[in-house]
Amino acid sequence: MSIASTWGTSPEDSGLSYPCDRLIPHPHDSLYRGVTIDASPQTVFRWLCQMRVAPYSYDWIDNGGRQSPPALTPGLQELAVGQEMMRIFQLADFARNQHLTLRISNSRAQGLFGDIAISYFVVAKGAKSCRLLVKLVVQQPPGVWGKLMRSLLPRGDLIMMRRQLLNFKALAEASIDPKLGHVDLDGDRERLEIREVVADRLAR
Known about the structure:
- By secondary structure, the chain is an alpha+beta fold.
- It has a single domain (3-203), classed as Alpha-D-Glucose-1,6-Bisphosphate, Chain A, domain 4 (2-Layer Sandwich).
- The chain is built from 7 helices and 6 strands.
- A hairpin with a 3-residue loop joins strand 3 (89-95) and strand 4.
- Helix 3 (41-48) crosses helix 6.
- It starts with a helix and ends with a helix.
């Protein structure tokens, strides 16, 4: 499998059972992402709850230019199935300090990307370290567009989710060690690089 499908994960990670598998049992595609975070599972899970108000990826792309909150918002840890997450998903299932599982709910996004379920899975590696693993299961839309998305979605999602997971890593680690300082949520250097690549391809 390519890095676009397995970024940051091992065969052991992809062999785990994820709650999203129950939502779309026969997907066209499965994508895995992962990052190690030097913070407790409780801290990481609390930051995942912030997805109720923002996606924490490239805000200039998927959050209307509004900055994802750099500090925890009181009350967002009070979860309930059906709550909106990341603007186009709903919370489908959760287990506190273990996982959040989402399913796409916005009809326009579903028509574009297909049916998608995502599990954010927190695996403890000690009292102050954990792995944040993500699995996406995707049922592409029918026809030619679905075939195109099967090629494009893994690469596009990798760009966005890599930034999201690195943001959660930085925020979780900074929340327990203030000496780490300011967290660049939008990845300014990476944003410039992406824009340069897009501009170069449009110029060809």
